[in-house]
Amino acid sequence: MFAIGNSTFGxxxxxxxxxxxxxSWSAAQFDEHGxxxxxxxxxxxxxxxxxxxxxxxxxxxxxxxxxxxxxxxYNFARGGAVLEKSLVRKDISQEAFSFQEQIVxxxxxxxxxxxxxxxxxxxxxxxxxxxAFGVNQLAVLxxxxxxxxxxxxxxxxxxxxxxxxxxxxxxxxLLNVPPFDRVLHSSNSSLTKNINDYNHExxxxxxxxxxxxxxxxxxxxxxxxxxxYLLKHSxxxxxxxxxxxxxxxxxxxxxxxxxxxxxPTGSRANTYYAIVPSTGKGLEYDHYAANCVVPVSQxxxxxxxxxxxxxHNATAAVLVDDCFHSDQKRGFCA
Length: 334
Description:
5-stranded parallel beta sheet, 334 residues, alpha/beta, globular
């Protein structure tokens, strides 16, 4: 069973456990009943090393590229997940895996119950709960032309956070919604408004959490503002300086897959290699399709909701600096 211990967050360098909840933007297909995290594989599953076909996500980079300690990451995020299932059509809700279900069906039974084995134990002060919702919920409601009751969404959001608090969570990282309306090239201003309203509520949620839970530390990373900056200044960061397509997507890359052709000479110079901690061996996650002109590593957007792994890399780098290193802030974390 977990131990509450000292609830005061000791800082990034003390982190031992990272629990991730969210939608497809964060999903890594982790199975709580599969192989568990361990030294040499901090993600547990799926193989190889908790990384799916589309390459590493922001949570992978946090865990192995920008960590200052050995972090074990448990990723309960699921593709298609929403905050509130009652607000989407029945045929969609049957496939969606809500925030509540991620807690009740995956997290609590395995990691926060009376039957949780000692080997799965965690401490409140050395654990961080990262929550990244909203992209799929807003996209589904927009696609089906359904009015978005932002206040109702956050009533559900608050209830699930309270459940995590009761389970022992004391340190939270909230990510807001990125400007995915830009890649949709949507002329419907309601989507942009919904994104802005949602992100405003995230700020209010942080303030409310700090008022209601005196022993809680809450960080909010402004993913939206960071992406707006990055789309204008991609060359300013080494992780994205090589990007060539900042506005569009290529159908051949939208769901990952194997490299289907040889890339043009020199175009793979910025390929990312996921380093396996125990061996130092690199796993390549670049793909090239001639119809896409450049490799996936040179695109900003992977599809109409998600970004490519170089952008996830840059996100993790700035997130750690702004949220956890007081001397390196750029103003994207509160």
